Amino acid sequence: MAPQKIMVEIFGQLLNLKSSADPEYAAKLAEFVDGQVRKVASQSNDPLKVALLASMNIANELFEERKAQEESDNALSQRADSLIEMLEKAI
After folding, report:
1. Any alpha helices (H) in the chain, and if so which ranges?
2. Who's near 4: CB < 8 A, 6+ residues apart?
3. Helices 47-90, 23-40: inter-axial angle, 10-degree rounding
4. What are the structural domain ranges in the chain?
């Protein structure tokens, strides 16, 4: 899909994006970021600090998801190893 122009709004700022992403997906991303920014906006009047705090929250959420995925992958790997071991003993 060729890049297209997509307009989104985050914290009252209109942003023109050039992206090959689905416009609905881009809108959902912008809505998520807007929510994160608004969540921390009461903590500071400095727009840079607000953006940084929101970024930290988003990064924290990403890292937590990555950790949960890694733990899930490890648990599945251990279960698979256990099943393989049980099958080998049964043969």
Report:
1. 23-40, 47-90
2. 18, 19, 20, 23
3. 120
4. 4-90
How far apart are alpha carbons 73 and 64 in whole angstroms?
A: 14
Q: What is the pLDDT of residues 14-44, one digit of tens each?
A: 999 999 999 999 999 999 999 999 999 999 9
Does the pTM of the predicted model rise above 0.70? yes
Measured CA distances, 4 to 9, 16, 25 (Å):
16, 10, 13
The DSSP secondary structure of 15-29, one letter per residue, reads: EEEEESS-HHHHHHH
Check: CB of residue 32 under 8 Å from CB of residue 10: no
10 Å CB burial of residue 17 (0-12, 13-18, 19+) is middle
